[in-house]
Amino acid sequence: MIRDFPLPDLGEGLTESEIVAWRVAVGDRVELNQIIADVETAKAVVELPSPYAGVITALHAAEGETIDVGAPLFSCDTGEPGGESDVAAAPAAEAEPSASAAVDAVPAPAASSAPAESSARAADAAPGPNLVGYGAAAETGPKRRARAGLASTPVATASAAPAPADVAAHDATVTEVEPLVERPRSTPPVRKLARDLGVELETVTGTGERGLITREDVEAAASVSSPADLVDSGASASSRPADMTPLAHLAGPQLPAETRIPIRGVRKHTAAAMVRSAFTAPHVTEFLTVDVTATMQLLRGIRDDRAFAGHKVTPLAVVAKALCIAARRTPEVNARWEEESQEIVQFSGVNLGIAAATERGLVVPNIKGAESMTLVELADAITALADTARAGRTQPVDLAGGTISITNIGVFGIDAGTPILNPGEAAILAMGAVRRQPWEHDGEIALRELMTLSLSFDHRLVDGAQGSRFLADIGAILREPGIALTMA
Length: 488
Description:
By secondary structure, the protein is of the alpha+beta class. It is 31% helix and 20% strand. The chain has helices at 84-94, 99-104, 110-125, 137-140, 164-176, 188-197, 215-224, 265-278, 293-304, 315-329, 375-390, 396-399, 464-479, 484-487, and strands at 2-6, 16-22, 29-30, 35-40, 45-49, 54-59, 66-68, 72-77, 283-291, 335-338, 343-346, 352-354, 356-358, 361-363, 366-367, 404-408, 427-431, 435-441, 444-458. Strands 9, 12, 15, 16, 17, 18 and 19 form a 7-stranded mixed β-sheet that branches. Strands 1-8-6-3 form a 4-stranded antiparallel β-sheet, with no helix packed on it. It has a 4-stranded antiparallel β-sheet with strand order 5-4-2-7, with no helix packed on it. Helix 10 (315-329) packs across helix 11 and helix 10 (315-329) crosses helix 13. The longest helix has 16 residues, at 110-125. The relative contact order is 0.09.
């Protein structure tokens, strides 16, 4: 039996995913739960296991294509009895002929009309390259039965010459038959390309199998829908004013060559999340420059201590630990605003998000229970999280449930910024680069190691005093790490 495996909802409420890589090919034998493909969700690459054991008979999307949730991903012959060919035969016998089949049908005697209609229906019922939910309505929805008395009455073509006696009956048949209107056959990537290029698929004639609209068809339609089409094609050259050459009134500056990059995957999700956050939560950003010389000396001492060999303790780890301690003293920053229930939800623990730049874009996986970790444990968790994110293997569970975040813009040599909140969180801290600069120390000017902290918070649930106290606590710990002993 041939079984189709539809792309499942991967638990993030997504409507589509991109095929990153196939692990199998047509003809391969797979086992139950064998990984068959890597698909990219909004922020992670997920491995999909096969729910069947058998032989792969078809892969319904190419690498790099985006398909909708519920659309067939691959087909597998499980070897079970009862092939689909027998099952599909019954619906095929009842399928309504498509509009094209009705127009192309040739009048025949009543005795031979049934076979003609059966063959037309079989042709329409044959599997095509369209995905679930697209194509002829007769193939994807309830079957429409012919009206009584009309099932065996063929519709004459324009080229046929019916007898005068049949004209009246033919006209009556035409007025009563309701032709099926098909959506243009195309795949999701082709429909997206058409939207990007401003092409109406209803105006495109498909050149693919059974009228499938291909990428080349859309590009060809876009090329003829150039600014030249805006000039009235019905007006002859002699009817135009002498000083008006074609497109003269449309002439504009010459633009350089452009490259169009599809918005999808991580970039698409990040864009939607940032817009939602920026226009939902009233952001306030505060800045604090801190003398972190003592913190940097602590880190150098840890690196030189053999007890900490194999642990990568960085300034980010110290800032993360300081944030967890400060959040315990100002719980308002470790909270969420719930619009529907009109409640502020404060969390007892910290799921600390760490912004990570990857080849696919920005992701913010989080460390669960960060408040209970030691400095070294936090450092190890951050290292593992960053390595997984850069490899594109962050799992959806690691991207969900964050309560507050840190972004390390210092690694890019940046001192400060105005970070945008991760949706659903009340605060995000940006840490800048550590720079050696002149600074007042013990009443004198000395070269000290400085860092600028930038804290953005949601002013709906964090007041200015609360945000300032939280940022000041972090700065105090970084200025003198030993003071953390008085805050724990």
